[in-house]
Amino acid sequence: MHRSEAPAVTEIAVADAKAGPYGIASGPDGALWVTLARTGRIARLTPDGAVTEHALDSAGCMPLVITAGTDGALWFTRSQDHRIGRITTDGTARSVAVPTPGAGPYGITPGPDGAVWFTEMNADRIGRVTADGRVSEVEVPVAGGMPSAITTGPDGALWFTLNQANAVGRVTVGGEMTIHPLPTPASGPVGIASDGSALWFAQIAAGQIGRITPDGAVQEFPLPDRDAKPHAVVATGPGECWFTEWGGNRIGRITADGEVSEHDLPTPSSEPHGITVGPDGAVWAALESGGVARLGR
């Protein structure tokens, strides 16, 4: 394990700590888009540090995970009012209700079919929403599994973590479901991302990063700090994954052979959550303390 010091990382303020920056995504307009979970706002950040905030129609809707859709807009989950939001690059926002009451939408990703797919933490379902707002749902056959993050895999299916079932799930666009149990008990998988050949996922309760191939073979890599609480992941290429350490106040990198490097964040207890590759090729992470971190490559 190698740890890089703070000069590799810069931080940019986008809000105060009360706003709670949580999710982050690279938009089609060359900017970063950040959810401000506690204030019901979406922030737009240019790589040179200019910030614009867009208020949503409910301050208490709790926008969480955000992604770029295939339609040129940003899509995000609204956990508290159980809706899926959409915002264009000019700041025009709308939302659609999830059919199941109290569903608690969380993870979200563009699907291989042009729709946007999302998880329903409280309802054991995977949802799908089209650009014109039509929503459908697929039931996950694990009661109380808490589907969390979701991504499109290299096989053209949707892959998602089951935080309370200690498993990774796969669902095809036709609704066929497969569940893959994980070797480490109660590991609490959360973030998941594809590197083009396999899926990487964070095991927040075990202090590990996992990797699963489309045929279901799982590898687990313990981190040097087992209390780091890895949360979100982003794959930057085959065999390479970056992740946030929510409990360790670091951004980490891991390769397919298990080599880990870690980068300390300048601000103590900044609580890094979402992570993405920015339009500038750098790795960016949302910090609940009120900013974003940029890790130069």
Molecular structure report:
The chain has strands at residues 2-4, 9-13, 21-26, 32-36, 41-45, 51-55, 63-68, 74-78, 83-87, 93-97, 105-110, 116-120, 125-129, 135-139, 147-152, 158-162, 167-171, 177-181, 189-194, 199-203, 208-212, 218-222, 230-237, 240-245, 250-255, 260-264, 272-277, 283-287, 291-295. The chain has 297 residues and is mainly beta. It has a 5-stranded mixed beta sheet with strand order 1-26-25-24-23, with no helix packed on it. The two termini are 18 Å apart.
In a few lines, what is going on in this structure?
The protein has no helices and 29 strands.
Features:
297 residues; mainly beta; five-stranded mixed sheet; four-stranded antiparallel sheet; disordered N terminus
